[in-house]
Amino acid sequence: MKGIIYIMTTAVSGLIKIGKTGSKNYPERMRNLEANGYYNVAGLKRFFAMELEDYDDKESLLHDIFNKHRVGESELFALDQELIRQLMLSFKGKIIYPENIDQEKEFDQVSKVRKQSNLFSFYRKGLKNGDEVVFKDDEQVIATVVGEREVEYEGQVWKLSPLTYRLYEQRGQLNNSGAYAGADYFTYNGKRLRDLPDAK
């Protein structure tokens, strides 16, 4: 039986919802969650959705795999949304959101972005906690390094890729894939983070 498994981001950085719904119910379910929130968490936004055979079993599998990251008995998980999207892209199905996405290209793109994100280290580039990095499209957006791969921005701790996604989302300028290698979009002393030499 076909149905839809979806991922939604929330107002809380790093907290996502993994849920399921019938194919016909999907538009209404999204409107309801985006308007009303879930489990006392607000700011839900659709991030990714696929129509799949045996969607009940596949959703249960995702919940089981990531059970240790689950918030109580809810459908909320403290996880990187790109990891879940990459896993879902390995399923055979039809991408419902975003529309007009090539599944194979999307999988390759997400894999590449996650690999680059995992490899980037502020410390390896010689930055230290307290250093400030600047968003390349808006010099007013300044984030502070608070860990090897984390920055603080507006009181929240982010990895660069999800922060980049959120900044473009706020501007209504998301690219087709919604996948970003964050080190390509922030600079330090005028140089793109990706281009900084490794510290000696």
Radius of gyration (Å): 18 Å
Number of domains: 2
Biggest β-sheet strands, sense, barrel: 6 strands, antiparallel
Measured as a percent range, the helix fraction is: 25-40%
Strand content: 25-35%
H-E string: EEHEHEHEHEEEEHEE
Keywords:
200 residues; alpha+beta; six-stranded antiparallel sheet; five-stranded antiparallel sheet
Can you tell me about this structure?
The chain is α+β, with helices and mostly antiparallel strands. It has 2 domains: 2-99; 120-195. Helices cover 30% and strands 26% of the residues. It is built from 5 helices and 11 strands. It has helices at 26-36, 55-65, 81-89, 103-119, 160-171, and strands spanning 2-9, 15-21, 45-53, 76-78, 93-97, 132-135, 142-145, 150-153, 156-159, 186-188, 191-192. The N and C termini lie far apart (57 Å).
